[in-house]
Amino acid sequence: MPLIGQFTPPGDKSISHRLILMSIIANGEMLVSGLSGCDDVNTSLSIFKQLGGQAATQAKGLAIKGLGGAFSSEKTLELDCRNSGTTIRLLMGLLSSLKGRFILDGDNQLRKRPMERVAKPLRAMGAKIETKSGNPPVIIEGSSLAGGDFQLTQASAQLKSAILLAGLQASSPTSVTEPAQTRDHTERLINYWGGRLTSEGLKNTVQPSSLTLSRFFSTPSDPSSAAFFLVAASIVAGSQVSAQNMLMSYGRTGFLRVLDKMGAKVSLTMTGDTPEPTGEVTVQYDGPLKATTVEADQVPSLIDEIPILALAATQAKGTTVFHNVGELRIKETDRLTSIRHQLGALGARINVEGDDLIIEGPTSFILPQSLDSGHDHRLAMMLTLALKIAGAKIPIIGEESISISYPTFQDDLNLLWKD
Ligand code: S3P
Questions:
Q1: Domain ranges in the chain?
Q2: Which fold has domain 221-416?
Q3: How far apart are CA 319 and CA 349, in angstroms?
Q4: Which pick of 85, 122, 252, 260 has the fewest CB atoms within 10 Å?
Q5: Catalytic status, residue 304
Q6: What is the distance in A from the centroid of ligand 1 to the CA of 159?
Q7: pLDDT reported for residue 194
């Protein structure tokens, strides 16, 4: 059975985090519609409230009152970032200059993720930050910050954002140059809310400045959620799926460019452009997919879509290579290993050479007794779709993790893919 229909994916997770977390330092009041209701964003929201931020659900969305950085406490505050890397890393930048002492911790997966890449540049700005051998818990003691000029060696939007957010509260300008373009939601929001930031190629410079929330913010739909069904439509004969109100920024839509190269029919109609571009995207099956090569500089624009693109590669004719995807090793799980093991268990010819992921297709799936997502939401969704394609039902261990980013995944699956 093909996938057919239109759907509106949940609000973008990256933008939702920023709307809430940047309200820690911004002034003013804002009504946000379409905010993501996923577990990770709820984590950011609980922490915002724990810091004294006000947020109330209304008929048209969430009303947020900015804290304007007005936090002061003698007591150490313990903040549980649970599974959310974006929460902890953005908080490191935001809390470094507040008047307080904070312990940022998380679940067992988060406790394995590297935090020194963020702590180091912040320390160079004067932040007092300690990590536990490079990982959470992270201890921050608020202090005054000076600007800095940073050349990053990792392409990471969380790292870039943490530095820029700290830079807003520093005493002099801060520049960050990244090795490749990553998602630019922080930069766009800083400018939209009256902060002073300039971009020149891969370099962003922020001046010490205050932010004022916009009265309204309509959250675009999440391309990283939409991707699961759009990619599945490119694999299954006869499919046509449209995602409405989807965030279309360059740094998030690399997967559509790859699908187009692999031979799917991708069409879009742009519907908005401020502060973020949005559009309606349709992916139509247009014959069997062809293998492709994904170059290193494309990777940041599709980093979260590699699990589902890897599934597409198992069904494409020829050898697909994803170059330089080593960053996958430090996601919620070691995604490079889990993609290889789980698709391998389904019979895929899949290898990791250095930091490259290599997949030879097409594959007719074989069925193991069960699959294991390792409690990684993006693995769990990819494996769910792999089993739908195989027309099989076997248990996926840890599939409840899907709510970390896409609590309505099963509803959209039922809407688009009728048995
Ligand atoms: C995100 C940045 C990316 C991405 C993550 C969300 C963000 O992480 O994988 O899901 O919202 O800034 P990195 O900054 O580690 O690449």
A1: 13-217, 221-416
A2: UDP-n-acetylglucosamine1-carboxyvinyl-transferase; Chain (3.65.10)
A3: 10
A4: 260
A5: yes
A6: 9
A7: 98
352 CB-near residues (< 8 Å, 6+ apart): 336, 337, 340, 358
Residue closest via CA to ligand 1's atom 4 equals: 304
Which residue among 105, 304, 372, 376 is the active-site one? 304
Over the stretch 82-108, which tens digit does the pLDDT of each residue have?
A: 999 999 999 999 999 999 999 999 999
Pick the CATH number of 13-217 from 3.40.640.10, 3.40.50.300, 3.40.50.720, 3.65.10.10: 3.65.10.10
Q: How far is CA 33 from the centre of its chain?
A: 19
Structural Rg of the chain based on CA atoms: 21
> Does ligand 1 have an atom closer than 6 angstroms to the CB of 84?
no
419 has pLDDT over 80: no
Q: Give the type of residue at 230.
A: L
Q: Whose structure tokens read 């959209």? A: 412
Q: What tokens does 79 get?
A: 């903040």
Q: Which percentage of the chain shows pLDDT scores above 90?
A: 99
How high is the mean pLDDT of the chain?
98
Does 301 sit in the ligand 1 pocket, CB within 6 Å?
Answer: no
**Mean pLDDT across 47-60:** 97
**Same-fold call for 13-217 versus 221-416:** yes
- What is residue 333's predicted lDDT score, i.e. its pLDDT? 95
CA 356: distance to chain centroid?
A: 21
156: Cβ below 6 Å to ligand 1? Answer: yes
In the chain, the percentage of residues whose pLDDT exceeds 70 is: 100
Q: Is 158's C-beta closer than 6 angstroms to any atom of ligand 1?
A: yes
| Nearest atom within ligand 1 for CA of residue 300 | 16
- Closest to 185 in 3D by CA, of 164, 201, 205: 164
Residue range 225-251, pLDDT digits in tens: 999 999 999 999 999 999 999 999 999
Q: Is 157 in the pocket of ligand 1 (CB under 6 A)?
A: yes
143 CA distance to ligand 1 middle (Å): 26
Residue nearest to atom 13 of ligand 1 (CA): 156
Structure tokens at 104: 């940022």
Residue 276 has pLDDT above 90, yes or no: yes
